Amino acid sequence: MQNLKSRLAYYIGDIVYGANDGLITTFAVIAGAAGAGFSSSVIIVLGVANLIADGFSMGASKYLSLKSEQSVEGAFSKRSPFDDGLATFVAFVIAGSLPLIPFILPHTAENAFQTAAIATGVAFFVVGAARSLVIKRHPLVAGLEMLVVGGIASAIAYGLGSWVEKLIA
User: Fold this and answer.
1) With CB atoms 3.0 to 4.6 Å apart as the test, which of 90, 109, 110, 120 could cross-link to 27 if both were Cys?
2) Could you tell me the residue ranges of all domains in the chain?
3) Which three-class secondary structure state does DSSP give residue 167?
């Protein structure tokens, strides 16, 4: 158990960073598209494209960032850049997939956006609370902190989608 906790502590930054950004950016794309009145098929296309491209970008950026740090330091760091990039990518894709599921499942299509919003809010809270496994913060506080940040980003995306659609329509 101690080994698992130390590995989690080692990768917690990458996991939280990837999961948080996966949730925020994927739901922001969904919220913006829903605010503009786009169909479920368009939302799925935009969401999946964002999920893979942005997830890869996040993982690759983490990898390149650590490689750059190692180059500047002139010595091999304890961190393994590939593993950190992979942890960021995997967390991004797993968490970022959650907001898309209601648009893909046929029995949730009618209320897909509302279901996605609730699922995303729960995921924000759970990922935030999970940080308390390795940081000194109460799970409720850590969860609410991430929920508020994600909620604000989501509201901005939905509002902008609605506003831009009205502006260009």
Assistant:
1) 120
2) 9-168
3) helix
So what's the pLDDT on residue 69? 84
Q: Letter for the amino acid at 99?
A: P
Residue from 88, 69, 124 nearest 12 by CA = 88
CA separation for the pair 143, 125 (Å, rounded) = 4
Structure tokens at 71: 């180059």
Query: What DSSP string describes 57-107?
Result: HHHHHHHHHHHHHHHHHTS--SS-HHHHHHHHHHHHHHHHHGGGHHHHSGG
Of residues 95, 87, 119, the one with CA closest to residue 23: 95
DSSP state of 109: G
* pLDDT one-digit tens code per residue, 95-153: 999 999 999 987 777 789 999 999 999 999 998 898 887 778 899 999 999 899 989 98
Q: How far apart are CA 118 and CA 110, in angstroms?
A: 14
DSSP code at position 168: H
CB 102 within 8 A of CB 112: yes
CA distance 135 to 137: 6
Residue 91, number of CB atoms within 10 A of its CB: 25
Question: How do residues 55-77 score in pLDDT, each as one tens digit?
Answer: 999 999 999 998 888 887 665 56
